[in-house]
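Posting here for the record, re: zinc ion.
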Amino acid sequence: MKNNCIFCAIGAGEIPSFKIYEDELVLAYLDINPFSFGHTLVIPKEHSRGILDTSDEMLGEIIKRVKKVASHIKKTLPCDGFNILQNNGEAAGQSVHHIHFHIIPRMNGDELAFHNSPGDMAELDKLAKKLAIKN
Ligand code: 5GP
Ligand code: ZN
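Prediction output follows.
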């Protein structure tokens, strides 16, 4: 595994993911320990640790894709709103040191606690197929 980085391996297709969107620069896929139904991660395929290590140009490209995927999720799922979350450093809760943006779908009054718990793999597979964006 390049850099010993799991998200590099997912981005390169060496480790499978519940893919929603892919192009030359980014991959978007369901989080396997979702905070909410449809919790999605958007990563650049190129490795960098966090926002301070990522070029302005790349950040601009990533955020356009985050918007595209979030917009699609909002239209496709029951979803009243969503959080975009991007953690930098362990103190901030970053557990995977490859920059990623969380898209966390929300429902009115859901009182979501931002705790991970393992998702049901069959359900995630079904959901990824429903959310898949064709280029
Ligand atoms: P962080 O806490 O670093 O901002 O978020 C890392 C996220 O990556 C967590 O929500 C965790 O559930 C998710 N995650 C960790 N390993 C994998 C994996 O192998 N596949 C997927 N799809 N998500 C992962
Ligand atoms: Zn990486």
